[in-house]
Every structure is written in structure tokens, then in C-alpha cells.
Write a structure and sequence with these properties.
Helix content is about 30%, strand content about 25%. It has two helices and three strands; from the N terminus they run E-H-E-H-E. Helix 1 crosses helix 2. The chain is globular and about 45 Å long.
Length: about 70
């Protein structure tokens, strides 16, 4: 019988522009749903999102919601 696990949610806010950074970092921000400074999105905490956040950690601010 599978157990219910609550997924943690992360609030990701863009704090810097991807201009003058690598192209793939700008594309990673787009994939996360960001594109303008100050914009925030909620993402489920999983290994894929963690890898994306690691790649752009200097451009975003991350808060744990649940």
C-alpha cells in the first residue's frame, strides 16, 4: 500500500537578469517560468527542479513553502 507523501513546494523569485550570462542559463530561467526580475513562481521540490536551481542559483532566490 503506497503511503501519501506531501510534496514540498519552493517559491522561486528572479533577482538578477540573465544578460551577460550563458545562453543556457537564460533558457533555464524560461523553463522555470521566470523571465523578468521580481517575478515569482512556485515549483514542486524534486531532483529535476533542484538541478535547474543549482544552475541559476546566482540569479534566483529560493524559499521553502511546505
Amino acid at each position: 500500500m503506497p503511503t501519501k507523501t506531501s510534496k514540498k513546494t519552493l517559491k522561486v523569485t528572479q533577482i538578477k537578469s540573465p544578460i551577460s550570462h550563458k545562453y543556457d542559463q537564460a533558457r533555464t530561467l524560461k523553463a522555470l517560468g521566470l523571465g523578468k526580475i521580481g517575478r515569482s513562481v512556485e515549483q514542486v521540490d524534486n531532483p529535476c527542479v533542484q538541478g535547474m536551481l543549482f544552475k541559476v542559483k546566482h540569479l534566483v532566490q529560493v524559499e521553502e513553502l511546505k
